Amino acid sequence: MSKTFLKIDATFKNLLRLYNRHNNETLKILEKENFSINDKQLLDWCESGVEAGYTQLYHRYSKSVYNSVYRLVTEVSDAEDLTQEIFISLFSDIQKLKSIENLGAWFSRVAINKSISHLRKNKVYFSDVDGANIIDDSEESLEEKQILDGKIEELQQAIEELPTDTRTIVNLFLFEDMPQEDIAQLLGLSHNTVRSKYHRAKKKIYETLQQTVCNE
């Protein structure tokens, strides 16, 4: 591990300590005055060595990054470690972040890519399905509404019971708003395979939700 990385890692951990203890005076002023500062200004602070820039960016995006990671890896410890790695990596290149137009969308995409890499390292394979069926769009729309009308806790539980590769597709589509064509490209699958797996998953989720209602 390089000295540069160790320095960044130590700095990041110190920023987390400051954030968690709420002892950064600049942040206290911002919170007291309910003052909103945009991402560009925060990145300027980071570039100037002002720690509040890092802590505010972390405060602004860490929850969404963690949620994106956790939905895909489903282990709290892994999600926490990956979230830290993501911010260490992002904060190590402020100049690159300053060139990004939509920082929130970029953070989300980095979180997804990091999570998929983690799954692959842990022997989760994404493969095409032979003879994947073409699904009628009208049929998809009807079941979509039935699924989303369910309670969020029950929906999440039903999704967690799916195989990892299928669960990944469902989470990317439902919660990350990623088009199926993009999911196919990200996972190295055909569009038909993604649609077929998603359709089968929705049927399984709907059956699970229906069973939950019957058992109440």
From TrEMBL:
<keyword id="KW-0805">Transcription regulation</keyword>
<keyword id="KW-0804">Transcription</keyword>
<dbReference type="InterPro" id="IPR013325">
    <property type="entry name" value="RNA_pol_sigma_r2"/>
</dbReference>
<dbReference type="InterPro" id="IPR036388">
    <property type="entry name" value="WH-like_DNA-bd_sf"/>
</dbReference>
<dbReference type="Pfam" id="PF04542">
    <property type="entry name" value="Sigma70_r2"/>
</dbReference>
<dbReference type="InterPro" id="IPR013249">
    <property type="entry name" value="RNA_pol_sigma70_r4_t2"/>
</dbReference>
<dbReference type="Pfam" id="PF08281">
    <property type="entry name" value="Sigma70_r4_2"/>
</dbReference>
<protein>
    <submittedName>
        <fullName>RNA polymerase sigma factor</fullName>
    </submittedName>
</protein>
<feature type="domain" description="RNA polymerase sigma-70 region 2">
    <location>
        <begin position="57"/>
        <end position="123"/>
    </location>
</feature>
<dbReference type="InterPro" id="IPR013324">
    <property type="entry name" value="RNA_pol_sigma_r3/r4-like"/>
</dbReference>
<feature type="domain" description="RNA polymerase sigma factor 70 region 4 type 2">
    <location>
        <begin position="153"/>
        <end position="205"/>
    </location>
</feature>
<dbReference type="InterPro" id="IPR039425">
    <property type="entry name" value="RNA_pol_sigma-70-like"/>
</dbReference>
<dbReference type="InterPro" id="IPR007627">
    <property type="entry name" value="RNA_pol_sigma70_r2"/>
</dbReference>
<comment type="similarity">
    <text>Belongs to the sigma-70 factor family. ECF subfamily.</text>
</comment>
<dbReference type="GO" id="GO:0003677">
    <property type="term" value="F:DNA binding"/>
</dbReference>
<dbReference type="InterPro" id="IPR014284">
    <property type="entry name" value="RNA_pol_sigma-70_dom"/>
</dbReference>
<keyword id="KW-0731">Sigma factor</keyword>
<dbReference type="GO" id="GO:0016987">
    <property type="term" value="F:sigma factor activity"/>
</dbReference>
<dbReference type="GO" id="GO:0006352">
    <property type="term" value="P:DNA-templated transcription initiation"/>
</dbReference>
